[in-house]
Specification:
Number of strands: 0
Keywords: Electron transport, Membrane, Mitochondrion, NAD, Respiratory chain, Translocase, Transmembrane, Transmembrane helix, Transport, Ubiquinone
Radius of gyration: 26 Å
Pfam families: Oxidored_q4 (PF00507)
Order of helices and strands: HHHHH
Strand content: under 5%
Family: Belongs to the complex I subunit 3 family.
Oligomer: single chain
InterPro entries: NADH_UbQ/plastoQ_OxRdtase_su3 (IPR000440), NDAH_ubi_oxred_su3_sf (IPR038430)
GO molecular function, one term: NADH dehydrogenase (ubiquinone) activity
Length: about 130
């Protein structure tokens, strides 16, 4: 039996076995909230469904995507580093230098600092006494 045939038989069999184990051993206790339409786990109250969202969370998400793409672009070089030579290493170092300078610029502008509303609320309570 070849490895390809083995995987075409093994993977569906494994998935059915794991689904069967889940159906047998997982607790099943439905209730009204669990079967209703899901919106953040609770019903929204008047005025709470469209609150302002801090832009810093989006900046962190964009940074994650940027560094994730960096890994995606560095990986082919690392796989073929033996045949790339000095030219490939130079191009990769210029690419990493550009990313590092951009990250240092964001740190210098304090674009990655998120102000905690809890700390601000606690300080406001102290001054309002």
């Amino acid at each position: 039996m070849s490895s390809t045939t083995f995987f075409f038989l093994f993977i569906p069999l494994l998935s059915f076995v794991l689904l069967a184990v889940n159906l047998v051993f997982a607790p099943h206790n439905p209730y009204q909230e669990k079967d209703s339409a899901f919106e953040c786990g609770f019903s929204s109250f008047l005025g709470q469904n469209r609150t302002q969202f801090s832009i810093s969370f989006f900046i962190f998400a964009l940074l994650f995507l940027l560094f994730d793409l960096e890994i995606l672009l560095v990986y082919p070089y690392l796989v073929s580093a033996y045949t790339n030579g000095v030219y490939g290493l130079t191009i990769m170092l210029v690419f990493l230098l550009a990313l590092t300078l951009g990250f240092a610029f964001e740190l210098g502008k304090k674009a990655l600092s998120i102000d905690s509303r809890q700390i601000l609320n606690d300080s406001n309570k102290q001054f309002n006494l």
